Amino acid sequence: MAGITPRLRPLLVVESEFPANEIAARVQARLDRPDAACIGLVSDRQVDLQIRREERRFWSPQLVVHLKAGETGGTALVGHFGPNGNVWTMFMACYGFVVLSAIVCSFYGMAQLMMDRSPWALWAIPIAAVFVALIYIAAGYGQRLGHDQTETLERFLHQAMGTTEDVAHAV
Length: 171
Hints:
By secondary structure, the chain is of the alpha+beta class. The protein has helices spanning about 20-30, 85-115, 125-145, 145-160, and strands spanning about 10-15, 40, 45-50, 60-70, 75-85, 170.
């Protein structure tokens, strides 16, 4: 687990010789099994996979896979691992608040400089940088906690398609 590098929404790319509707049917059949490790929604062009509710935690990932026509005639599965939408929104709101606060304080600090006053508001810029780093570290920690569940989602997708994990590559 020490070698895990946090990435913003890791990408999974898989090539399949099957058409998109067959992949969707295979995933749905696997989801319908009582021993399914995941729950999800399947449409003709998208598969959304999540960890079962009883095993889901705040940091649990989800996998959203788009089914696209492949270059070799099959289907390209392009998926993103990410947190639940509520968690993703919270992190983006935190980033937005910190950055917006830094911008407002930098304008105020520049106005203080122009008026020959002490620019105490400029201290918000390094403080904001520390908060951005802390948010990034928290996101990385959540990814480390959810690493095993990320592998469960990927394994489930490969089992449903009848492929091995070595045909995929994460970017």
